[in-house]
Q: What sequence folds into this?
């Protein structure tokens, strides 16, 4: 980041354009002390504003800041996008533009569905759900930040001209239609099941608490009760964290006298996302019928107001995405 801002300023100066580079500490961007995943607490923008008032282009290194003690911190995954959005919010910019390697936000990954359509506009709610469900266009933190401070966010290509996709609080004109905006998916999921544990208050906390304390993110959670009054809890984690989660769960299982633990790394999650789902029934039924018609069994289901996500066998992922994309008429000519 620091090398890049210097090189960009050199290039601008060679064109006769006044510019100045800033590291995160020089701005300064103040963060907490959680190095590697620091959170931005404030930005002191007076230096930048003075430069802008004197017609100087400001180039800021993303992904970094300093804590209250002056220690350099990094923001972690998605940190550069988050830096851009935070600066836009602080400077009260009309729009924050993120240039990336894609033309914008598509209805799904064009590498899987060649008919995927570029979305000219999408709401923060939809983008946040799509990012959390596996869409790789933007990191969740940047979308959360933009939504919180109401900064219009536009995703554009670094290589092609085009309007890209505008992410905003404003709903689309066709918001009242029973529409799905996009299909998101995540291959990096793994599933753990603990069976034969006591069905009593607090058992879920005993099972999932130690996993969370190990800083392992838990996604989908389902709890069932058998006829013998024993409980089964199934949950998903990132595939890279399956082994440590399994190890922790083994200790919990011993304490609770569980019958068995089942681990499955051959799963994937597919989600449909759309604000139009808020006020229309039948969207879930269409999804389940579509998957059934393709012979795809659903293992887990989770929902929100504008999202339905299912866990399926990984080998059916691309088939499911293509079938659902066609089912909801998301093709470029749809």
A:
């Amino acid at each position: 980041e620091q090398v890049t801002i210097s090189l960009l300023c050199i290039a601008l100066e060679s064109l006769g354009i006044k510019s100045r580079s800033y590291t995160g500490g020089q701005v300064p961007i103040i963060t907490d002390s959680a190095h590697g995943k620091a959170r931005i607490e404030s930005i002191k923008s007076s230096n930048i504003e003075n430069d802008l008032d004197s017609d100087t282009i400001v180039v800021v290194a993303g992904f970094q800041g300093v804590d209250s003690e002056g220690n350099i911190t990094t923001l972690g995954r998605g940190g550069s996008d988050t830096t851009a959005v935070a600066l836009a919010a602080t400077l009260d910019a009309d729009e924050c533009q993120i240039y990336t390697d894609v033309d914008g936000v598509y209805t799904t990954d064009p590498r899987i569905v060649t008919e995927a359509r570029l979305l000219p506009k999408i709401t923060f709610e939809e983008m946040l759900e799509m990012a959390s469900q596996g869409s790789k266009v933007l990191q969740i933190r940047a979308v959360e930040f933009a939504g919180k401070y109401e900064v219009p966010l536009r995703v554009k290509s670094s290589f092609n001209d085009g309007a890209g996709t505008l992410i905003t609080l404003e709903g689309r004109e066709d918001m009242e239609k029973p529409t799905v905006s996009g299909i998101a998916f995540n291959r990096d999921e793994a599933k753990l099941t603990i069976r034969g544990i006591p069905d009593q208050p607090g058992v879920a906390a005993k099972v999932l608490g130690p996993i969370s304390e190990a800083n392992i993110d838990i996604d989908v959670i389902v709890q069932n009760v058998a006829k013998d009054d024993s409980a089964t809890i199934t949950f998903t984690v990132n595939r890279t964290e399956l082994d440590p989660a399994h190890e922790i769960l083994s200790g919990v299982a011993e304490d609770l006298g569980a019958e068995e633990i089942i681990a499955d790394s051959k799963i994937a999650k597919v989600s449909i996302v759309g604000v139009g789902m808020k006020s229309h029934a039948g969207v879930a039924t269409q999804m389940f019928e579509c998957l059934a018609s393709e012979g795809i069994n659903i293992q887990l289901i989770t929902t929100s107001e504008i999202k339905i996500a299912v866990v399926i066998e990984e080998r059916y992922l691309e088939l499911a995405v293509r079938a659902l994309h066609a089912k909801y008429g998301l093709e470029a000519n749809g």
Observations:
- The chain has three domains: 1-76, 99-173, 175-334.
- The chain has a mean pLDDT of 91.
- The CA atoms of residues 130 and 184 lie 6 Å apart.
